[in-house]
Amino acid sequence: MAPxxxxxRVFRTFVIEPLKIIASSKAGLAGFIGLLLYISMAxxxxxxxxxxxxxxxxxxxxxxxxxxxxxxxxxxxDIFSQIINGxxxxxxxxxxxxxxxxxxxTLLGSIAGFKGGLWDSxxxxxxxxxxxxxxxxxxxxxxxxVRLNNFTxxxxxxxxxxxxxxxxxxxxxxxxxxxxxxxxxxxxxLGTRHIVLVEIMPNLMPYIVVSWILSMTGAIYSQxxxxxxxxxxxxxxxxxxxxxxxxxxxxxxxxxxxxxILSPILAITGFQLSAILFARSLENVFNPRLRG
Length: 292
Description:
Elements: H1 2-23, H2 26-48, H3 79-115, H4 117-132, H5 135-145, H6 150-160, H7 163-176, H8 180-187, H9 192-228, H10 239-248, H11 258-286
């Protein structure tokens, strides 16, 4: 019975209570539902709405209808199916790049802030060098030199995106390590691993989680921008490819093609808005002082 009660308590603490806090905020709830819809679309959408690959010139640039909820493109293919099937690659790159960014930034920022000395000097020197290099132009150059797929693209975005976050986490650690409870842990000789993982890291989690979500939104901009400019091979169908094709085939010159241009843009905007609203609600989950 004891393990069952313990499991129930953990489930209530880490699942039920956070969901209640998120549901108490209309904006946070809207963001949470929006993210669930996007994740469901990426996971199950292609099986429910297969990608329309058959050109139908007679249906070129049709307006929205029951048959085609978002109209058709320059070849008469259904835009709605392209939006559904394009979500998976975009969200995969966003998740992988955001996760890698946060992992690198948290590790290096924590080491620099807690260890100090030579470690701090080396990490911050590398950090400052990367911060002075414009990220998107560097991504464009690397994309021209390296044949990118979704995984390598996510890895490059993640490796290049950590410096600003690492500097912020370093500042947080520098502040936390002067607190009384950290001094007490040092006096008890609990060890560096315990102090960082048990004492410092839980206090950083609110900032880390919110930064992870914001890093995902930044990764989407980078990915879609590279795809739109043609720096990434069109190995699959995603929202960036749709914007590129709309531009390449002159969709901006047709009044009836407005849905072909706006659909991927609105899909990206909707995900970004959902992520930001959800991030705001997560601040309430991690910081009780904000709940009032």
